[in-house]
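ok here's B-glycosidase:
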Amino acid sequence: MARSPGIFPTFFLSGFECSTFHWQHQGRRDLIAETQHDRHVQEDYAMLRSLGIAVAREGIPWPLVERGGQFDFSRLDPVIEAMNRSQIMPIWDLCHYGYPDDLDPQAPDFAERFARYCHAAAHYVTSRTRTPGPSFFTPINEITFFSFCGGEWGWVAPYLKGRDHRMALRLALCRAAIAGVGAIREVDPRARMVNVDPLVYVVPPADRPDLADEARHETFEDTFTAWDILAGRLHPELGGSPEILDIVGVNCYSFGQMEFRESGPHQALGPRDERIQPLAELLGVVWERYGRPIIIAETSGLAEGRPAWLKDVMEESLAAMARGIDLHGVCLFPAVDMPDWHKGTWLHNGICDLIEEGGQLRRAPYPPYVEELRRWQKRLNRVTVLDEDPFSDPVDLEEVRAAAQQLQLQPDRDWS
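and the structure:
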């Protein structure tokens, strides 16, 4: 019996890139198809099982399952079969940037349409997935980033540009997400929400100290606005509450610490930049603000940097837990490689690289990354391969915290 039961059956989670952006110059993208996760779903989930990972973020492509208000979720059947066979618990991602072509996120009916879709999707997957306990959902992925790339930069639908458009799009997405949570909990009142957004830190350029206020506002206010709305701290008329925010999913990448730019995306700080802040400190800001359970919902290094990145993230995560932060897991995302959205080249950020062979994408685990995962599983007294019933006991967070105390890790400014 776990002395301090966690939310999930394993501390390490994973997931599959599932974006369905509609790009202004590329059209509709389906990253599930581009990575051939749909063709290799049995293999992909068997791989997670062999790695001792019992939880995975998995997408439902809203624009591809709804046509004219009618739903066809049959494309999920092989996914659910693979999950059930490998005994993997899903976190269902219901809107990974894409929405049906006949919708406008700022139209009056968007939230209602999204809620109707959420209700139908929740009913379909919960009636077919054989995992005990509550179901898990991410209603709208990365509301903050979605509002930037669709509302300020004009990269993707709805192709808007300008700060005011970004603010309006973010508010509309929050309104829809809150409605979606209500619809999901009509199906499963116990359902848990994992609300995912990037965790960032922004600094002014060295030669522009006059931009310090703008950088600080983006770090400590703008970054948290969507979560604040979902939690009911801002725009309470929309119906947000701590129970809707529920689990805070923070995405943590090296490019999340940036130098402020007045227009366009900010510039990522380079390694060993003295302005980098320890991840443990940033997790502390999230914990103090909301007091809700936290997971690192996405993290990965690139290419040969993957094992070193995992080491740094784990050391920072354990330093945070030793300080009392309620962290429930780290999601190695993605499980299999994904293409760069703009260039199309493989990023080499997955547990498995993808190697093109005769029209198929062969999965090739990156050994140093796997070895680093195994090292941490053993250090934290976690399983390395799932047993016959991976859901019998949740993670004992007391064991993880004990390992953190034993290692006596401190937040490290040079963590990236």
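+1. The chain has one domain: 12-407.
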